[in-house]
Amino acid sequence: MPDLTKVATGLVWFTIAFVLASLVEYWVHRLMHAPLQLGERHRDHHRRNEGQGVVWEFFDYVKGTFVVMLLLFFFSLEAGLGWFLGGLAFAAFSSYAHQLQHENPHKCFWMKMPVHYVHHKYGMWHHNFGLAVDWWDHVFGTYKLVDWLTEEELSRPELGYTELRWW
Q1: Residue 45 and residue 47: Cα distance in Å, rounded?
Q2: How does pLDDT run across 56-101, given as a tens digit for each residue?
């Protein structure tokens, strides 16, 4: 039988990593819109208005955070596993959510409005910075609700949750 204290420790650190990763994603995206040199690749992303595929998004997220994802292993195995898996889970979820919002925004059932899709469609350089979740836009006052379901969106063919670019 597993030690419940160890399991609880892992679950707590998984949750902290998942939520913290969403906060980091929000602020990194927001900083990419600041008048700094940080966002040239991001400006190209806005010009093309497409994701690079779920797998490539995932690799980018993990590549940029891998060292941080390993840090809690110095504290304990349980904390390290929870932290690492929480970060990995958010990277996978965010990669999928980002691509989904570019190709099939109707399927983002966990948000009232697909914020990243709206961010691109309406050229919102000061609003709706969330990629996977809209929590932080609400917290920091950057959420801007718009009536996004236009005739164009309603006339799109119905696609499934997996019908998007994976590579």
Answers
A1: 5
A2: 999 999 998 899 999 999 999 999 999 999 999 999 999 999 999 9
Q: Give the whole-angstrom CA distance, residue 90 versus residue 17.
A: 8
Reported pTM: 0.88
Distance of CA 79 to the CA centre of its chain: 23
The one-letter amino acid at 54? V
Spatial distance between the Cα atoms of 39 and 99, rounded to a whole number of angstroms: 19
| C-alpha torsion angle, residues 83, 89, 90, 95 (rounded to 10) | 150
Positive or negative, the CA dihedral 83, 30, 103, 159 is positive
DSSP assignment string, 31-60: HTTSSSGGGHHHHHHHHHT----HHHHHHH
